[in-house]
């Protein structure tokens, strides 16, 4: 195993959390594949530079807090990246239920203010809010519940 490539791969993983697939792609760019690539990945895991569970936790927490993504979109993206079900579930536990509902409420309230400038029909406004939140990856039942709460609140 080439120590220089291992060192390069370690610094690639140290910069930010990566999946095994991302590291394999990077190794291919460096003309390393097959058994040698597998050895390097195994070494990175044993040295704790590479952890899919840690990636899932960081990814899920970050996408929720920074991009306001819902659980469905985060889960789908983690799945697309080839993570194990165990790692995905571990990542999803990073999202607190109360913070999740609060995040959806804030997202809907901000979007409602923007949409009210151009949309006066409450039915259409609710539809647009729901479509927006679904695009962010929130669950339909939860969205509609929060929309009803949002519209039942007295105007301040």
Structure description:
The chain is mostly helical and 156 residues long. The chain has three domains: 3-46; 52-92; 97-152. 74% of the residues lie in helices and 0% in strands. The longest helix has 20 residues, at 97-116. The protein is elongated, with a radius of gyration of 21 Å. It starts with a helix and ends with a helix.
Q: Mind sketching the topology for me?
A:
Layout: H1 3-15, H2 20-29, H3 35-46, H4 52-67, H5 71-80, H6 85-92, H7 97-116, H8 122-135, H9 140-152
Helix pairs in contact: 4-5, 4-6, 5-6, 7-8, 7-9, 8-9
Number of discrete helical segments:
9
**Rounded mean pLDDT score:** 94
Overall tally of domains: 3
H/E series, N to C? Answer: HHHHHHHHH
What profile does the largest beta sheet have?
none
End-to-end distance, in Å?
66 Å
Percent of residues in helices comes to over 70%
Rg (C-alpha, Å): 21 Å
Structural class: mainly alpha
Number of beta strands:
0
- The dominant shape is elongated
Oligomer: single chain
Unreliably modeled segments:
none
Task: Name the beta content range.
Answer: under 5%
């Amino acid at each position: 195993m080439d120590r220089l490539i291992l060192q390069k791969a370690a610094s690639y993983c140290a910069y930010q959390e990566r999946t095994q697939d991302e590291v394999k792609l990077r190794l291919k760019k460096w003309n390393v594949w097959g058994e040698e690539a597998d050895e390097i990945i195994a070494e990175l895991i044993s040295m704790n530079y590479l952890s899919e569970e840690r990636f899932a936790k960081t990814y899920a927490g970050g996408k929720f807090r920074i991009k306001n993504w819902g659980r469905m979109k985060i889960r789908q993206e983690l799945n697309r990246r080839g993570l194990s079900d165990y790692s995905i579930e571990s990542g999803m536990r990073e999202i607190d239920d109360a913070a999740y509902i609060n995040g959806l409420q804030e997202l809907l309230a901000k979007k409602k203010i923007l949409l009210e400038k151009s949309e006066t029909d409450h039915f259409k406004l609710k539809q647009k809010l729901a479509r927006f939140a679904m695009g962010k990856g929130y669950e339909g039942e939860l969205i509609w519940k929060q929309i009803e709460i949002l519209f039942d609140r007295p105007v301040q």
